[in-house]
Design a protein that fits this description.
This protein is α+β, with helices and mostly antiparallel strands. It contains ten helices and eight strands. The chain has a single domain, classed as Outer membrane efflux proteins (OEP), CATH 1.20.1600. A four-stranded antiparallel β-sheet has the order 2-5-7-8, with no helix packed on it. Strands 1-6 form a two-stranded parallel sheet. The protein has a two-stranded antiparallel ribbon with strand order 3-4.
Length: about 425
């Protein structure tokens, strides 16, 4: 899916957060969390670390003009013959032998200022890439935590359904035990299973509370924010959008880590060119006015260059710049290999999870439901024992949890893919 225009994204985000703040101002808590898109919009606006990265990128952009500016001119004053045997020392320009006023301006060699500006621009691109990378990693953590929260909530729901089922089984066992049709062991086992499941639900509720706390931390939310239970996972994109070649192209175009490494390569290339330009001298020009008593009696024009004689030092700097460029290129190659491997690995895992979902939903879950119904009917008529019913009950719970796990795994892998390509699917 193509990303929304920047202006539209900003408007939607600011509008959503403004509504939330207005709600808080009216005295009510801000409630969010039903959908991951809402959480992402809130975090983009409110998370302090991401805000700091944005400010750093904006600060880096302001360095571009300063990097290409000329050095400040220098002003000097020279008092000649300020101490005479007759009058003694004097610092007034009209009372000394003569006064020389000098203004000097340094002029870097041709192209040096442009190269410095290009290096600053590359640093700005790197800072923007770091901000984008920070957001991609934060969004990835939010998506992962949301999916885990959804899984815990689903497991709690299925566990409570099974708890109701166990209570029903216990009532059946008590009735049949009262009629002398089954041993007391069936009743005790039903009660034991129910207690064990209740204990497991307490543990799941604790994990769900911990996940909610972690989510609030990721959002940068305060105490006035109330998290809602997850409503649903995002629908998976069509298969055409999961084409490996298309995702590879998007990775090359949008991955912020690659963008950072590309900016570092550009900065290293410009730094190397600037180092080679240091073989040429910089120029200084100056203008001086000479004052004798109360009038200007002469003008001087000056021209200076620095002489690049320290060849050993300069060659070492040039070799250093070459090595830094090679290092930047190697880092980009390593980053490209890593994100490519992550993309392929997660894409394969996503397809596998989709196949598991199809098998569980179309075959395993219907079979487990039929088995449970048959076991319940058989136990009520005395055709099957209690162990068979418990086994059928465990199977259907496992099938439901396997189904939701397969869907959550797809969401987790989707988040991994979006992190790799640097964009939403």
């Amino acid at each position: 899916m193509r990303a929304l225009p920047l202006w539209l994204t900003v408007c939607l985000t600011v509008g959503g957060v403004a509504l939330a703040q207005e709600e808080a101002a009216r005295g009510g808590d801000v409630a969010l969390g039903g959908r991951v898109e809402q959480l992402l919009a809130f975090a983009r606006e409110r998370h302090p670390e991401f805000a700091a990265m944005r400010h750093e990128a904006a600060a880096a952009a302001l360095r571009i003009e300063a990097a290409g500016a000329l050095p400040d001119p220098m002003f000097g004053i020279e008092l000649r013959d300020f101490a005479t045997p007759d009058a003694g020392p004097n610092l007034l320009p009209a009372r000394v032998g003569s006064t020389r006023y000098t203004v000097t301006q340094s002029l870097p060699w041709f192209g040096k200022r442009d190269l410095k500006r290009d290096i600053a621009a590359a640093s700005t691109s790197e800072a923007e890439g770091r901000a984008q990378l920070a957001w991609i990693n934060l969004a990835w953590q939010i998506k992962q935590t949301f999916a885990q929260h959804y899984l815990l909530q689903s497991r709690l729901r299925y566990g409570r359904e099974n708890l109701d089922l166990l209570e029903r089984l216990e009532r059946i066992a008590l009735a049949r035990y009262g009629s002398g049709l089954v041993p007391q062991q069936d009743v005790i086992r039903a009660q034991t299973e129910r207690t064990a499941l209740a204990s497991e639900l307490v543990q799941l509720e604790s994990e769900q509370a911990q996940t909610a706390t972690r989510m609030k931390s990721l959002l940068g939310a305060d105490a006035g924010v109330k998290l809602l239970p997850p409503e649903r996972l995002r629908p998976l994109p069509p298969a055409a959008r999961l084409d490996a070649a298309a995702l590879q192209e998007r990775l090359l175009a949008a991955n912020p880590r690659l963008a950072i490494e590309a900016a570092r390569i550009s900065a290293a290339e410009k730094a190397r060119e600037l180092t080679y330009r240091n073989r040429y001298p910089d120029v200084s020009v100056g203008l001086a006015a000479i004052q004798s008593r109360d009038r200007v009696t002469g003008w001087d024009l000056m021209f200076e260059i620095n002489i690049p004689l320290q060849q050993d030092s300069r060659r070492a700097q040039e070799h250093e710049a070459e090595r830094m460029l090679e290092a930047a290129r190697s880092r980009r190659e390593a980053a490209l290999n890593q994100v490519n491997a992550e993309l392929q690995e997660n894409l394969t895992a996503l397809h596998a999870a989709r196949r598991v979902e199809e098998l569980v939903s179309l075959r395993l879950l219907p079979q487990a439901e039929l088995t449970l119904q048959s076991a319940l009917a058989g136990y009520e008529t005395g055709k099957v024992d209690f162990a068979t019913v418990l086994d059928a009950q465990r199977q259907i719970r496992k099938a439901k949890e396997d189904l939701v796990r397969a869907r959550v795994t797809q969401e987790l892998r989707r988040a991994d893919i979006e992190r790799a390509i640097g964009d939403e699917l």
